């Protein structure tokens, strides 16, 4: 009996050591959000690409200009990415998951939607690219399973990581028209056709700033101020932003009016509004990647631009 007890203890000890070794070999699994899928510093992150059967989205850092983050929809359309995109991009280095499921067999992969899934994710670092497969659409984003292609390990991602990529055209486009604020310029010039008029901007406490014609600085122009307020509040829809190098149907819009902004002698920005081939109006500024289609009511702003430029 004693011999059998010794043998049993030996078997249990060996099993314990094997289990301990197995746990040690596995990736650490801690509290939610503590499982590291891809360990990399943010400075090495260059590009994140998501694609499925119908969507292709990329977020990438523009190194040649100002280090800005850009969004590519499809293969050609490139737009500036917004603050939501910046926050999302940062989450891929390091990329964390809520759980690690280890390596799953074919049956389990099918259960979680990873078998033959068309959804792919690629994270490009300065040191190379890392590929992942995402759960098929039938599983949904509520349980975003991800398979790391290098070793087959499966992870459960937080549900908030990936939906923005799938809906990038609506959630990640930067709709900002200007890089400066309303208090950053002290002069503006309105040009319509061959006529221009320059206004000095005079701030007033807790009231809208006045526009003073430079040729008559003692007489504020209230109609011009109200017109420019509407211009300043123009907000094209996200889906109507064109990318770098794109032109509207029918070709380049014909300029209808232009507003240039100065601080002292320095030109800090401009807004150009043009009429498209179909009669619709587009705008572009010092910041936009290209033209952006304006709402239908913008035609009234265009009609009044000549009055402001001529002072009539």
UniProtKB/TrEMBL annotation:
Species lineage: Bacteria, Pseudomonadati, Myxococcota, Myxococcia, Myxococcales
Name listed for the protein in its UniProt record: DUF4340 domain-containing protein
Source organism, top-level taxon: Bacteria
């Amino acid at each position: 009996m004693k011999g059998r007890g010794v043998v049993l203890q030996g078997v249990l000890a060996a099993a314990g050591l094997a289990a301990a070794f197995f746990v040690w070999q596995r990736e650490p699994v801690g509290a939610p959000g503590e499982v590291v899928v891809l360990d990399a510093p943010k400075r090495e992150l260059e590009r994140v690409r998501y694609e499925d059967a119908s969507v292709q989205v990329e977020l990438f850092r523009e190194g040649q200009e100002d280090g800005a983050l850009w969004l590519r929809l499809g293969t050609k359309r490139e737009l500036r990415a917004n603050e939501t995109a910046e926050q999302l991009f940062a989450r891929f280095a390091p990329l964390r998951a809520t759980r690690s499921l280890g390596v799953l067999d074919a049956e389990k992969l099918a259960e979680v939607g990873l078998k033959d899934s068309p959804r792919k994710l690629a994270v490009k670092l300065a040191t190379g690219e890392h590929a992942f497969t995402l759960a098929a659409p039938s599983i949904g984003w509520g349980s975003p399973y991800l398979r790391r292609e290098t070793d087959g390990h499966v992870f459960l991602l937080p549900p908030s990581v990936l939906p923005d990529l799938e809906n990038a055209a609506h959630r990640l486009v930067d709709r900002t028209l200007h890089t400066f604020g309303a208090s950053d310029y002290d002069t503006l010039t309105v040009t319509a056709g061959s006529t221009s008029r320059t206004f000095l901007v005079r701030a007033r406490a807790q009231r809208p700033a006045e526009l003073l014609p430079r040729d008559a600085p003692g007489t504020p122009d209230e109609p011009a101020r109200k017109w420019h307020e509407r211009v300043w509040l123009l907000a094209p829809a996200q889906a109507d932003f064109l990318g770098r190098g794109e032109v509207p149907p029918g070709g380049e819009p014909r300029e209808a009016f232009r507003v240039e902004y100065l601080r002292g002698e320095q030109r800090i920005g401009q807004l150009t509004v043009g009429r498209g081939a179909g009669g619709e109006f587009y705008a572009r500024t010092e910041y936009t990647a290209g033209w952006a289609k304006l709402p239908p009511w913008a035609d009234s702003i265009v009609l009044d631009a000549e009055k402001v430029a001529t002072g009539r």
